[in-house]
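Re: the pair you flagged

First of the two:
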Amino acid sequence: MARHRTWSGADPDPPPGSGPVRFDDAASAVLRALRPGDVVTYGEVAVEAGFPGAARAVGRLLSTGEGDLPWWRVVNASGRLVPGHEAEHARRLEAEGVDVVDGRVRPAARGPRRAPGARR
């Protein structure tokens, strides 16, 4: 069963002198914190990174960014897999125990959310 995670992401008030938080850095941190079986939406990644409304930018980051980000743990708001990559997306999610039916993550597979660092 997939688990959703909640994380405040980038601190809205970074320490003095630390400079502004870059979207790519904040979103990458959220994505790297996902564990096997976690499933989130593009919008949830954006919110957790501290950039609500930037769901499309998450998609851009995953499609053009570093190859080490766990792109397969992200689906659209309706649970749909990445168009054109559905077979690979489903294979990776199913290997982590996530139920995929007809090219979508089953809503029941997206269960309770927890904060990074919280004990399971």
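Second of the two:
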Amino acid sequence: MKRLLTLALSALFILVGGMRAAHAADTIGTVDYDKLVRSYNKAQLFSDDMKTKEADLEKTRAEYVKQIREAKTKQPNNPVAVDQLQKSLEDKLSTKVNEYRSLQESQAQALEKEMNNAIETVAKGKNLSVILAKQTVFVGGTDITNDVLSRLNAGTATTTTK
């Protein structure tokens, strides 16, 4: 009788543990963050804007190099003037690069915050207590990527995805 009671209690513990594990698996969600970045309209606009700004920086740098070369050619006997020009142009370029990086960082942080807020909102709506990166989950979990994308892209201008 004692053995039968032990066996029944063991089966009950296993059953309850299995139910807890199944319930825990039901409360785990996954999100494909890479897909969010590729498909979120604002993220695409940000990426395009940053590419334009990078091209502008490169154009500015090339123009400054051209100006320095021309100054060296036109004023070969005046290295001080050439050095002053070079320093002035390097300072201007450095200022532009720092402004670009600051803008890039602040906009990237704002986008990340928007995406994380949307993930949290969708997770709460689906009663998911944990959200993991989809790339780290082999099996299981509820994928909320498309729901998050729908929430993010609602009311934003569309752009072509690459």
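DSSP finds five helices and three strands in the chain.

-B.
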